[in-house]
Amino acid sequence: MRASRTWTRIVGTLLLLLGAAAASALTAGTPTPNYAARPDVQSFIADLVRAEGFDEATLRRLFAQVRVQPSVIAAMSRPLQAPPKWYEYSPRFLSQARIDAGVAFWHDNEAALARAQLEFGVPAEVIVAIIGVETFYGRNTGSYRVIDALSTLAFDYSRRAEYFQGELKQFLLLAREQGVSPLLAKGSFAGAAGLPQFMPGSIRDYAVDYDGDGRIDLAGDVVDAIGSVANYLAQHGWQPGQPVMQALRLEPETQDAIMRQFDGGVTERRSIAAWVRDGVVGFAIPGDLAPDPVGLLLLEQPDETSYWMVFNNWYVLTRYNRSRLYASAVWQLAQAVAQ
C-alpha cells in the first residue's frame, strides 16, 4: 500500500509539472487553440464589424472553429539559406513529366486558352506554364484550410502579421461575396489557393468568372483559372507580341565590368544601346521591339553561366513571384510546352 501511495504521489507530481510547463509555454508565446477567445482576434473582429458590416456573433462562431497550424509557422520560420542556383532549381519545373502534362492541359483546354490569348494578349503557353509551375496543373494546390493558414500567420507570425491580417480580411470578404463558407477553401501554407495559387487579395482584384457561370472558382473551374492568370498578367503590364528573354554573350574584355553590375543575378534596367556600348553581343532583337529599358540576367549552369537580356514581359512574370528563377522557369517551360 505504501508503494502504491508513493507511486500515486510521483504521478501526481509529474502531472503538476507537465501542467505548469504547458502553462509556461502558452504564456511564453505558444499560440492558443481557440482564436475566438483571444483579445487580438476580438479586436480584428471588431474592426471588420465596424468597417465592413460583418456580424460579430457570426465571426466569433467562425473563429472558434479556426485552428492554429504550427507547421505553417515552422514553414515560414525556416532559417534563411542561400538561394539555389539555376541548375538546382529548374529541373523539377522543366521535367519531361511536367512538359507532357502541360501539353495535355493545353489540348484539354484549347478553346479557353485561345480565347484568353486573344482577349488579354497573353500567349497560351505562358498561361499553361504559370499553372504548371504553381500547382503541376492542379495536382498540388495545398491541403491547409485557408482560414487556418491565414489566421495562424495573421496572429501568430509577428514578422508579417500586418500583411496576413490584410489577406485574412480579403479572404473573409471574398467568402461573403461568393456566399460560401470560409471553412471550406483549401490552399497552401501561405494561404494561396486554386490552380494558379492566388492570394485572397489577388482573387478579389484579378480573378474573373471566365466561363460566365456566376461565380469565380479557381480551385475547381479550369476556365476561370485560365482567364484569371491571363487577366493578372495583362493588368500587370504584359505587352502582346513583345519578347521575354533573349540569350546573349559578354565580350571577354568587358565581362568583369558588366559582372559587377549584377545584384542577385539581375542588373538594373538600361537601354539596349547602353548595353551594346558596354560589350553585350550575340542577341537578335525584332525590329518592332517596344522601347523599354532592359536588364541582364544570369542563369547558373553546371559548367558555365548563361547570360540573357530580359524585357518588360519577363519583369511582369516576376510580379507573380519575385524570383529571377521563377520567371525564367515559367518562360522556359512555356517554350518547351509550345514546341
Descriptors:
339 residues; alpha+beta; 4-stranded antiparallel β-sheet; two-stranded antiparallel sheet; 16 helices; 53% helix; globular; disordered N terminus
What does this protein look like?
- The chain has helices spanning about 1-25, 40-50, 55-65, 70-75, 85-90, 95-110, 110-120, 125-135, 145-155, 160-180, 200-205, 220-235, 255-260, 270-275, 310-320, 325-339; strands at about 145, 185, 245-250, 280, 295-300, 305-310.
- The protein contains 16 helices and six strands.
- The chain has a domain at about 245-310.
- With about 350 residues, it is α+β, with helices and mostly antiparallel strands.
- Helices cover about 55% and strands about 5% of the residues.
- A four-stranded antiparallel sheet has the order 4-3-6-5.
- The chain starts with a helix and ends with a helix.
Structure summarized in a few sentences:
With 339 residues, this protein is α+β, with helices and mostly antiparallel strands. It is 53% helix and 7% strand. It has a domain of 66 residues.
Rg? 25 Å
Instruction: Extract low-pLDDT stretches.
Output: 1-30
Largest sheet: 4 strands, antiparallel
Summed over residues and divided by their number, the pLDDT gives a mean of 90
Order of helices and strands: HHHHHHHHEHHEHHEHHEEEHH
- Residue fraction in strands: 5-15%
Number of helices: 16
Distance between the termini: 83 Å
Which structural class do the helices and strands define? alpha+beta
Helical fraction: 40-55%
Q: Please give the number of β-strands.
A: 6
Which strand order does the major sheet show? 4-3-6-5
| Global morphology | globular
